[in-house]
Amino acid sequence: MEETSAFLCRKLARMIQGPYxxxxxxxxxxxxxxxxxxGTVCLxxxxxxxxxxxxxxxxxxxSTETHCKVPNYLPSISASIxxxxxxYIWRFCIGLxxxxxxxxxxxxxxxxxxxxxxxxxxxxLGFLALACALSENLGLLLLTYVSSxxxxxxxxxxxIVFIASALLHMLITCRxxxxxxxxxxxxxxAKSYNYKIRLFALNMCFCALAGCFYWKHNKYCEPGIYxxxxxxxxxxxxxxxxxxxxxFWDFGNKEVTVSTPPEDKYF
Length: 267
Fold this sequence. Notes:
By secondary structure, this protein is mainly alpha-helical. It has helices spanning 2-17, 33-58, 60-64, 77-80, 86-115, 120-145, 152-184, 187-220, 225-245, 247-250; strands at residues 29-32, 255-258.
């Protein structure tokens, strides 16, 4: 009798729901997070490599010129994205890239909040990681849309905000994933943590080298030193992109979905 009553109740509920059945609530759009992460990182990767190649091949003299007129053989990133049409390619790619970056920052914060509900320090670090991710993206937008040959002081501040936020974000992320790896012990978490640590160390080393070469170039104006600075700058930016690509393992089984909001089925 109880089974029959339960069956009748379920059938009656389906009849009452009518057009508000499960078909009505299917997602409008669904994309694996791995594809989303790859696409997000590929936008600045393709944009930057295109700008560097165009600057080096078509605008070599303009992109490698230095203030003290010493020989230089590679364009800096700031110089390459300030020329035409390179600036428009870079701005287009970063414009498309920035919105998904905000979404990824929110996804990481939601992940940390669910994982570290009862750990105050890690929750605080999760908030700081979100703040750093947002300021990193804003710094990137600022240095992108204000080029060095337009307003150098603003472009420089945007670059400083981007680099400082990126380094702090990577440091905090490595600390959080050290805790995750320690208590979960999954192979994906371990792989992601190992790559994060290596890429952060690589980024830190080449940031220091880039700073040394930049200082030495401005102080002594030796031939080829700015080329070494530009090379280190490439490694810093590409390793930063690779660090963000580790989301491939962090959200490997997740999906990005767009769906209609649930409607009230009860009157």
